[in-house]
């Protein structure tokens, strides 16, 4: 059963949505839309528990954790702190880390669940202990208090549209391989549904694979199977749900002898993925503003502890339904397709990477060819 999103306002164009997201951040920082009545708790000695799922996804360690830590400190005059744990792709370890957060009586828990279903037991324990839980990036089951992520069905649609746009008139009967994410991740089904809404009936989806724990090694093994079954020259495009798997897919294609890459999608705008886009090895990646997602999550976490409202224009403008809960307050951050044509306008403008970060000696010529120097 997929999560249902209910927007409190009509859908907006991406540029407007991005501007509104930034405005919401500014409003929240000033207390805009929050309940500042005399009965609200003003305590700034806050401990936010942060549980992230793995280290294979580069953004979690490089961006999400540091950004959340910085924002919590900013919102609490440096009195608030973040207690962080990474599950390293182990569902059992994440449950143990969750329980430790409860035992240590953190004030609120931000969790990016490895498995949306099994985490529900831990969410219930936190709720029973009076600790609010906010689902971060992936929608967890159980009585969560809020959800901060992106429009994940739109992520898949953006990836699917990129493939269709690149295939153009050759799309009909083109053979496409789908490398989906971990079935235990609730976002996987939404990415897949979005991609299929663009691809199904338009191309020939010859192979589909689920990728346990999003592991690149699993994706690479599956891509080798697809090449052997379909034939290297017959694969017109590869839908890869994220950048880690995209790199593994490209390795498998290169090892099989590919000299010209079919369009391969990705997600997360990892540095190595952006470099592959520059070099023409990876066709695109979905750029999701880490700044907006992480800072909004921190604002919601602090607001929950301080007893301030998070609903409507202040922080959560939409609601979502999980298989266990209805009308969960949600902040959904817009997404952008990153290609060779808009690297400057996305990750460089937002300060995620510098030209120097991307254009290392290995990629200097490729950067110069697209005016990125």
Describe the structure.
By secondary structure, the chain is of the alpha/beta class. The protein is 42% helix and 17% strand. The strands form three sheets. It has an eight-stranded mixed β-sheet, with helices on both faces. It has a three-stranded parallel β-sheet with strand order 8-7-9, sandwiched between helices. It is globular, with a radius of gyration of 21 Å.
| Rounded mean pLDDT score | 88
Number of continuous helical runs: 13
Question: In percent, how much strand structure appears in the residues?
Answer: 15-25%
Distance between the ends:
47 Å
Which short descriptors sum up this protein?
single chain; alpha/beta; three-stranded parallel beta sheet; 42% helix; eight-stranded mixed beta sheet; 17% strand; 373 residues
Structure summarized in a few sentences:
The protein has 373 residues and is of the alpha/beta class. 42% of the residues lie in helices and 17% in strands.
Task: Summarize the SSE layout with pairings.
Elements (H helix, E strand, L loop, with lengths): L3 E4 L6 H17 L16 E6 L5 H18 L5 E6 L4 H13 L4 E4 L7 H10 L4 E4 L9 E5 L1 H16 L7 E5 L6 H14 L4 E6 L6 H15 L4 E6 L2 H13 L15 H9 L5 E4 L1 H17 L11 E4 L6 E6 L1 E4 L5 H5 L6 H4 L5 H6 L4
Parallel strand pairs: 2-3, 2-4, 4-5, 5-6, 6-12, 7-8, 7-9
Antiparallel strand pairs: 1-11, 10-13, 11-12
């Amino acid at each position: 059963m997929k999560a249902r999103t209910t927007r409190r306002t009509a859908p907006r164009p991406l540029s407007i949505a991005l501007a509104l997201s930034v405005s919401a951040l500014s409003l929240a920082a000033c207390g805009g839309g929050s309940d500042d009545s005399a009965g609200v708790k003003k305590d700034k000695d806050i401990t936010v528990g942060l549980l992230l799922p793995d280290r294979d996804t580069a953004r979690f360690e490089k961006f999400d954790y540091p950004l959340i830590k910085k924002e919590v400190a900013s919102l609490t005059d440096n009195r608030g702190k973040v207690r962080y744990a990474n599950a390293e792709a182990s569902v059992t370890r994440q449950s143990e880390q969750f329980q430790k957060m409860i035992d240590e009586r953190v004030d609120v828990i931000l969790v990016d669940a490895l498995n949306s279903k099994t985490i529900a037991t831990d969410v219930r324990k936190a709720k029973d202990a009076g600790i609010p839980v906010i689902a971060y990036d992936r929608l967890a089951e159980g009585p969560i208090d809020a959800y901060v992520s992106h429009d994940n069905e739109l992520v898949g649609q953006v990836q699917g549209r990129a493939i269709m746009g690149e295939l153009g008139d050759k799309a009909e009967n083109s053979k496409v391989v789908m490398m989906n994410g971990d079935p235990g991740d609730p976002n996987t089904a939404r990415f897949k549904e979005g991609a299929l809404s663009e691809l199904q009936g338009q191309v020939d989806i010859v192979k589909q694979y689920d990728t346990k724990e999003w592991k690149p090694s699993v994706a690479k093994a599956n891509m080798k199977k697809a090449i052997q079954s379909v034939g290297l020259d017959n694969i017109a495009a590869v839908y890869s749900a994220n950048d880690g798997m995209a790199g593994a897919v490209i390795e498998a294609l290169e090892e099989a002898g590919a000299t010209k890459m079919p369009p391969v999608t990705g997600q997360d705008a990892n540095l190595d993925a952006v470099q592959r886009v520059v070099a023409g090895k990876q066709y695109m990646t979905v750029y999701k503003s880490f700044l907006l997602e992480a800072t909004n999550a921190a604002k919601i976490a602090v607001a929950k502890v301080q007893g301030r409202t998070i609903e409507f224009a202040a922080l959560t403008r939409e609601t979502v339904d999980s298989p266990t809960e209805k009308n969960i307050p949600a902040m959904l951050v817009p997404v952008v397709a990153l290609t060779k044509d808009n690297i400057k306008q996305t990750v460089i403008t937002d300060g995620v990477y510098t030209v120097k970060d991307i254009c290392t000696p290995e990629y200097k010529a490729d950067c110069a060819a697209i005016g990125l120097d």
